[in-house]
From TrEMBL:
It comes from the Bacteria. It comes from Caballeronia glathei. PANTHER family: DISULFIDE-BOND OXIDOREDUCTASE YFCG, GLUTATHIONE S-TRANSFERASE-RELATED. The keyword Transferase applies. Transmembrane segments: none annotated. The keyword Transferase applies. Belongs to the GST superfamily. Keywords: Transferase. It holds the Pfam family GST_C. This is Glutathione S-transferase. Residues 1-81 form the GST N-terminal domain. Residues 86-207 form the GST C-terminal domain. GO terms for molecular function: transferase activity. InterPro entries: Glutathione-S-Trfase_C-like, Glutathione-S-Trfase_C_sf, Glutathione_S-Trfase, Glutathione_S-Trfase_N, GST_C, Thioredoxin-like_sf.
Amino acid sequence: MLKILGKASSINVRKVLWACAELHLPFEREDWGTGFRPADTPEFLSLNPNGLVPVIKDGDFVLWESNSIIRYLASRYGGQALYPADPVVRAPIDQWMDWQATDLNRSWSYAFLGLVRKSPAHVDANQIAESLGNWGRHMRILNSRLETTGAFVAGEQFSLADIPVGLSVNRWFSTPFEHPHFPAVSNYFERLGERPGFAAYCRNGTP
């Protein structure tokens, strides 16, 4: 059986859990990371030298990096509806997944760590404000995209890209500050609520 190493509160672990729900894929999960078994031990570093969760063990196959993991799972376990083989259809899915992992994540990092995680290293008010401004600019990009598709981030159909993007949208709404109004983003987030795994792994009280 597929084994997932990582604590369930981690946004990157939750990508994998939600993908498993969409794929109806059974798994076992072990708690690793802050507050649980440390990820900087030789045992864990032999699986992921970066010392980060999640890691999966699928038989003898080991893989880390959350977006790579969910691509692998969809490709191996009948997830063509989520991640089609056609490169023209697949490319926008990869595009928005990569955008979430790079541009969007970088924009909210400082503000989230300061306002939600209460990190002592992220208390500078000017840097929080700058981060919130950058975050809002990226959410405006997402809002414009969703206005165009009228549905999901890569097009009319739910795809693998909506898992990481949806989790980031949950983080947006869960962070305490005055949010700009993005109607298409709000409608999108409610639309995601119809998906299996959403309540358990996205809008579950964990930012």
